[in-house]
Write a structure and sequence with these properties.
Blueprint lengths: L14 H11 L6 H12 L3 H18 L5 H21 L13
Helix pairs in contact: 2-3, 3-4
């Protein structure tokens, strides 16, 4: 499952873009934020599972800002909102949708 963790950004971004985005994101957030989100997306489920994964991602982003200084908290909060809206709207392309228990 760990091979499904690709850093910050969706798998359809180029490796170079994901590398840059991950490096930039580390200025504000901890790696566990996108690692947990990638694992939740890989495990998949239904629409409610996707929405829950996105909200938990946002929660992790905000939590990881707690030990940052004021300016990083302010900028990181703004960036976390952008990331959250992005995964909420465009994460459908990466989420592993499954019809559990339905034929």
């Amino acid at each position: 499952m760990i091979e499904k963790v690709n850093g910050a950004g969706p798998s359809w971004f180029s490796k170079k873009l994901r590398f840059f985005l991950t490096k930039f994101s580390r200025l504000f957030f901890e790696d566990y934020c996108w690692i947990n989100h990638d694992i939740r997306y890989f495990n998949g489920g239904n629409l409610l599972d996707k929405i829950k994964a996105d909200f938990l991602f946002f929660k992790d982003l905000i939590r990881s800002l707690k030990r940052k200084h004021f300016l990083k908290k302010v900028l990181g909060s703004f960036i976390s909102i952008i990331y959250f809206i992005s995964v909420l709207l465009f994460g459908f392309f990466s989420f592993n949708f499954q019809n559990r228990g339905q034929d």
